[in-house]
## 1
Amino acid sequence: MGRTVLLACLVILVLAMFCGCTGILRNNTPATLTANSAPGLAPAENFVGIPTPVVDGKKIIQVYAHRGARSYVPENVLPGYRTGLAIGTDWVDMDVVMDRDSNVVVSHDLWLNPDIVRGPDGKFLARSRAAMLRGIPPGKTDEYLQPYLVRNLNYSRLQQYDVGMLNPDSPYAAYFPDQYPVNGTRMPLLRDVIRYTRNLTGGRVGYQIEIKSDPEHDTWTYPPAEFASALYTVLKEENITDTCEIQAFDWRYLYELQNLDPGIATAYLTEWDNEPETPYSFFCNDTSLAGLWTGGKLVKDYNNSIPQMVRALGGKCWEPEDVTLTKEALDEAHRLGLKVVVWTWPEHSGSAFDPVTVQMMIDMGVDGIITDDPGRLISMLAARNYRVPERFIGA
């Protein structure tokens, strides 16, 4: 009888310890773990929408391979995801738009971008994206772009365009001198990327998906509720609602997604332009500008704190541009239970990878870094004895 009671007590103790540890990983408080208690922790299981823990005195910093791994291969295409997974990443990152038939398509741009898009004749659509826009008469942008808008093209038409090479005449190409072309590459559906990644990784990698829109040009894409519904249908049908983080600069789309599923991990993107004294500052006295990308919500109503604003609006992640992040804002976000993942804009920072800025982010203790060059980021983490992601080699 005594041994039975003792065994029961031990079982209860083990269960209590297990539940406690699980609660630490899944609540909104960073945890301190030992290396042995967290071997090979997969983001899909532990760190979706919550701050990462500290392991052996070092905060786990997750790797997000941006658009696949566009420093090395064409962006937002299956060869790019193959490469990013082979290098190693905790998350595959992609942008999504919708075509004429409401398919969710992986693409960064609302309209066919001459920096990366060639037509059926094998020629780039213009010398560059900037050159194409400069050639449009004043006041004619909407009219001119209609034939190029993804929302106006069905998927079979989109498959006629090659996105497997950078336009060598474009300034954009200069940021990725090592990118290897894969001619004949087409835009994939979101389902394609999810299924490829799942088949290769067995579900051990998370999905970061950014909704693309432009509140200054609402007719270029679908309304927030319609887009959110189409995207959520894919997430549900592919069974990844618990292993994805959904980003947007245009927060209206995140509100609609949260209405569909309050538990989904939404990631609120901000950039340098949202900081004080910038063109689209959240702190601008002109409320039409201050609330343009937030659906009319104003930071002044949240103690002039972007982290407080994100948390109050239902966000689980705050994703600021790396050069804008301060330690004070990071600490505030962590106190609020927000996961903080930073990103780089090469056109702003001057390069696809800046090791000085990356070192600052590591020292600050961010939860994740979105990078065009996961290889260099992983090398920096490995050299500093940080956990590095698993690699997946596939065809």
## 2
Amino acid sequence: MSFSESVGVSPACGALGLARSSYYRALKPKRDSSTRPSPRRTLSGEERVEVRDLLNSERFCELSPRQVYATLLDEGRYVCHWRTMYRILAANDEVRERRNQLRHPDYKKPELLATGPNELWSWDISKLRGPEKWSYFYLYVMMDVYSRYVVGWMLARKEQARLAKELIETSCERQGIDPDALVIHADRGPSMTSKTVAQLLVDLGVEQSHSRPHVSNDNPYSEAQFKTMKYRPDYPNRFGSIEDARAWARRFFTWYNEEHHHTGLGLMPPSVVHYGLGESVRVARGVVLSQAYRQHPERFVRGVPSVPSLPEAVWINMPKEEVSATPDVMESVTEVTSSGSDGGDKSGRPHPISTKRVSQKQGQVEALDLVH
């Protein structure tokens, strides 16, 4: 005797947390959905072909099914309802909006992975307020997504694809990027989608990736970096000149790359992670924590404190199957930055390119200012 027969269906379903309707539904044999019978009122294959030929005929090819339906009725003829005509046309992919309307393409969500430096870069442009109302300077920032290291920045009076091309080209040269080794991600701004930038990336062997329109989460690292920059205590409401903005940006990017202890990087500066010094720093921190534990073990209720680990992988839009399989690898959205500069003189005439190289500490690339 089964459990349901001994205690009844309702108590058995209640004990198992199962609805009685689900139990009774499971007792019924399943119908084969692949052999669904056609309604008796449906048109035959020959009739459907006849209707389709009629709609595509020279007489009716420019008329909508409603107009064809009414015209045939006035002539004393009925073939089928106008909705059936639409269904026949749709089944043969022959119906569409006749007006010249914009059709938005189906943009694919970018899913990008970085497991080390110089595999995935992200860049964007932000406006900085100038000395007067409606005056702005344009800050171009190129950053490494894995290490959050700013590999290039430029400050200009305008947004131009030519300037973006120079920033990308110089940054790739300084970092020694090999062909087919880097992906550069950006939103769909005019400079990002320009032919000038696209042709440069093809020449450099760099793959380009773009965000979906109106989806800021597709470029989270650049967006977060700009928020970190503009929430700094010394960030002014307005900059007096492009020289003032450039001087402030140099100080900020130096702090960000060399001194900012990033929460997404195990509280390490981006330059340490970008140039492969992270493990040695973790070992040194572990020694300090072990000494602190030996001196005062009563202060550490969970035993020897652990050093925050470095990220194994950083995603832009991690796939759902990856999230369920490796939840510990998920990276939070954090800041990002870059180094370089651009501008013009008061007359608006461009200057020739001059290069100024300054030696930096071990593990940091040389700084390069581009002056136009």
## 3
Amino acid sequence: MQSTLWIVFERGFLFWLLGLLFFNSAAFAELNPKHSRDLKLLWEYSSKGAINQAPIVRKNIVLVAPSGQALLALNLANGQVFWKYNPQSGIWDRAFAADQELVFAGTRNAELSAIDLETGKLRWSVKLGFQLQVRPLLHEGIVYAATTQVGPGLPMRPERKARLFAFNAEDGTLLWSHETLYYAIQTPSISGNTIYIGGSYYDPELDIDEGGPMAIQARTVKDGLLKWTYFGEEGFIKTIYAAGNEVAFVGYQDFVNALDTQSGKRLWRKDTGNWVPALSGNKSMLYYGSANTIVHAQRMADGERIWEYNIPWGSFNYILGEPFVTGDQLVFLTQRGHVLALKLKTGELLWSAATDIRSRTGLTLSGNTIVMGDDKGGIRAYQLPE
């Protein structure tokens, strides 16, 4: 453990130093006032728990789950509360998703609940017998629940296996479930008729200094039958994204990897340069930020970097969570509270805006409104600059 911490520190220091060396006149040029914008604050709501998962916007409703508090539905226009969902057991603040009709949330008594989007009333609830601590995946009327045996507030049971469940979203009917290799499953990704799930599993005989045993599995959407398994040592998976012929993921080792969707063979592996919190996929492209302040646009087919952008304002001002793709722009929040928009194709800076928000996660966009939460429980909505 000591050596692992030293490697993390050493790597972080190295890229901090490189960031200083390469923070040249070109980077300073991008601080030109012509790019600076003011975000108009539309409203602010104060809760009592940190916001650890980016809000979701459906119709005119903002869904957010402050840590240790109720799931909130706020009016996108003015921030007023439509409803609160607060079961006696409580909910997991990172484990909620929604479509245009229902909100799905993992509760602390190992259940999955479906809540009416408009009214906040419980539609149905099913017992999982496993905890759900990541966002469920919604796809064509099915909700996929990826469970865990290890996580915040849970006893550490890495020797136990978790299950992936598929439910009818309308009424909660179980369609299928499968025990997996993993003690913890990340939110899966679907492309075509295949669902790709990734997670970490326990192997006491492996002694890996940085990373750990992990695997990606491809299963049929219809019944969850196994098609192939990829085994690796990249450590705990943060994000998995499938599109076309490739499925990409980033793990604890902070390399982006891509596998062939038909065979599961690795196509390429690229070093990200530093710690990466998550990645976003948009068709055949990947977008993510690393802690050395670099934003990356990477082609899924071969891993080629199409462009890179160096975020100004000092070292470690990195992207929080997943950057948001909207139209021809990539919009994101940084660790120091800056909101930036880049051209999706070229990485050119379109505009930037400074805020005093200190967040743990990224932002959400709906139309011309940005919604984000901070580590104190504040939830804010801003109007996008023209």
